[in-house]
Fold:
Amino acid sequence: MINQKNYGLGTARSAIRELFEYGKKQASILGADKVFDFSLGNPSTPAPKAVDEAIADIVKNSDPIAVHGYTSAPGSIETRTAIADSINRRFGMDAKADEIYITCGAAAALCCTLSALTFSSEAEIIAIAPFFPEYRVFTEGAGAKFKVVDADTVGFQIDFEKLEASITDNTAGVIINSPNNPSGVVYSEDTIRKLADLLDRKSKETNHPIYIICDEPYRELVYGDIEVPYVPKYYDNTVVCYSYSKSLSLPGERIGYIYVPSSCEDAKAVYAAAAGAGRAMGYVCAPSLLQTVIARCIDVQPDLTDYKINRKLLLDNLTSYGYKCAAPDGAFYLFLKAPNGDGNAFSEMAKKKNVLVVPGESFGCKDYVRISYCVATETIKGALPYFKELIEEC
Amino acid sequence: MINQKNYGLGTARSAIRELFEYGKKQASILGADKVFDFSLGNPSTPAPKAVDEAIADIVKNSDPIAVHGYTSAPGSIETRTAIADSINRRFGMDAKADEIYITCGAAAALCCTLSALTFSSEAEIIAIAPFFPEYRVFTEGAGAKFKVVDADTVGFQIDFEKLEASITDNTAGVIINSPNNPSGVVYSEDTIRKLADLLDRKSKETNHPIYIICDEPYRELVYGDIEVPYVPKYYDNTVVCYSYSKSLSLPGERIGYIYVPSSCEDAKAVYAAAAGAGRAMGYVCAPSLLQTVIARCIDVQPDLTDYKINRKLLLDNLTSYGYKCAAPDGAFYLFLKAPNGDGNAFSEMAKKKNVLVVPGESFGCKDYVRISYCVATETIKGALPYFKELIEEC
Structure:
């Protein structure tokens, strides 16, 4: 007499977690230096010093009742104003504090947004492969249907023919994630323009707005001269879901936001429905101390030094061995084509050498594997000979 | 084309918040010393010094990647162990770390538990008036039906005849909250025993466990010699939802837990379903820094000095004027019988004098009003003459 769907979600472990737990077990048997774990997307760079200095200063010098007290449900007005101002400075928008809803991380932001847009049990949410597997869990949790558009495995942009074919009268929104987990690819300006054109046309045809749900925890993690287009500038009906998990290396603290620009059709209603969804799921407010920290650290940028070193080391060596991968312009992932054409089999082969890479199947690309390079550089150096062996054995 | 139920929840303000916002507006016009706001349950005592000392020490001396990193979804093993050990020391239980699921406060704990127990769309959850109004929102958000048992307005314990009549084959659980918001009443051992007997009998009759969902954020806030019975000792199928919001004055930080004792029928499945519900709602983990703080401060007790002063001042004076109220042995509320017999009308009368008390209707008792005495003692002193006037005018 319990909820069977929730029971299933609570007992099934994701492919990523499964590998991670295996890695911990192997490390305890063989020693940590004998296991090369590329499974998790947990930042390996510490939070910037400014963050911990802000925490120490706030608890020392601020009114303790206010610091740890309830904020209003959408978040403190100071932090929402700081976030809106930062969006305006960086992207030339006209964001207002009352268009920002501070959340317990991007996962909460996505769940509230998806629940807000689920207009009926027939509503459909589209994700484009490769995609973060929890999108399916969040969408189905919100009561909508989850549809996947196959990957464009040439450039890992969007296969627009397939996307168009998947849109129906029940399409409520399309989730995009750029820089992408798991591919590391950044959607080009051309891709965003084409997406905006298609969704504008389809919104007219279906006679209702089709929203873009823009999940961007990796926005600040880009390498080289690549610019990540700010999607609300290209498409009015965009809801942004942001997180400080990766940019400020605070994944456990659960702090992010929803931004519903005034350009959105029914912007105030979408915002209210996201707030209502948060209320029904028990999100009273985002952690209050961290809200104050974000206001103080709004312009702090991540330190990408280690990720740059790791990325170059892996990319240079793996391509020299003959591996092929998606253009890894952002995030901290390489999405590798399995040399034997089968991500599950390749992951198993690698596992035998204690090299842990996640099969692409759960991301919607079964020919690939994901490598998280947010690890110690030594782990990469230690694993390179095994990667060489692996491609030779394929 | 948005979710209308969520839209409704996001636009409707609770009676409590409505009054609170009115109070802020009046204070800005008349001056803060002319408005006597007893609307919110926001602790007026700061977090114990040990909490802020722990925060400062942790960010200074611990591995920053671990401090702010993801914990496992149920929470760090160190904190879950500390919580289980504390439960065992205090209540003579045999709790294990894997029976504890750390949550973003009691609201998240309740939402996960209710969602876990919602075995079908016919499932019913019973609350006993007076009750915290968000129980309805959380229950309906979980997809179950919400049923209310009228209050026992003699002692504010439980009217067992009415409770028994409300139990059906679809009853999944009964939420109890002692010390109670809004009445301040603590359920006696006799009440808990009778409740356990009734639910044992009804579980047999309906051929499935009827769980007690024991919401106890106010457990540590008791006055005098009263003992708050630990419900899992009296009834096997009890799920505890706890929060540190009131005991450590950390309401904005969102930290609490679910405890599913092994005595529960299907304990492991209930726990897994609660975890699965959390996953589907985007609760990745509870805030990581606060998890570490809780482990360090597990034995820190709240400072009740101010609440004791406020409680005595209000209670002595209001009863001397002729007011009647429920026995306020815990929490930081007085639940006052409206002298004119109508809580809404009395709240309106008081509002005209800038004394803000919450009508009892949303708690399920329309003849009453709730006074939160977690305020500055000066606020109480300033309001007493108006309370005297009010009863004379009734």
Summary: The radius of gyration of chain A is 21 Å. The mean pLDDT of chain A is 96. Chain A has 14 helices and twelve strands. Residues 104 and 194 of chain A are 32 Å apart (CA to CA).
